[in-house]
Amino acid sequence: MAQRHPRLEPVGDTHPFTPDAARPVRVRARSMPADTHFEPHRHPWAQLAFCATGTLRVRALPEGERRD
Questions:
Q1: What pLDDT score was predicted for residue 58?
Q2: pTM above 0.85?
Q3: Alpha-carbon dihedral sign for residues 22, 10, 32, 46
Q4: 32 contacts 9 by C-beta, under 8 angstroms
Q5: CA gap 31, 48 in Å, rounded
Q6: Spatial distance between the Cα atoms of 24 and 45, rounded to a whole number of angstroms
Q7: What is the b/e burial string over 36-59, where b = at least 16 CB atoms within 10 angstroms of the residue's CB?
Q8: Inter-residue long-range contacts of 13-20, CB under 8 Å, 24+ positions, other chains counted
Q9: Rounded Cα distance, 62 and 68, in Å
Q10: CB–CB of 43/14 below 8 Å?
Q11: Mean pLDDT throughout 49-61?
């Protein structure tokens, strides 16, 4: 059976969601179809990811490790 390669969803512009001293916590919500995969990315702030229904899987690499 051929291996299925998921379509990577662009993360998009994160600048409007960058935490700062005036707004240390930001919220971003979006609807995603089943089996959505985001392109690998990084940012200097913490992130909480959750889903209202279904299952969410997040994989994080150790600091300094890159996935090419």
A1: 87
A2: no
A3: negative
A4: yes
A5: 16
A6: 10
A7: eeeeeeeeeeeeeeeeeeeeeeee
A8: 14/43, 18/43, 18/45, 19/45
A9: 14
A10: yes
A11: 87
At 4, phi and psi to the nearest 5?
A: -85, 130
User: Which residues are within 8 A (CB) of 40 and not within 5 positions of it... i.e. 6 or more apart?
Assistant: 67
Structural tokens at position 54: 């279904």
Report DSSP letters for the chain, one per residue: -PPP-PPEEP----GGG---SS-S---------TT-EEPP---SS------SSS------PPTT----
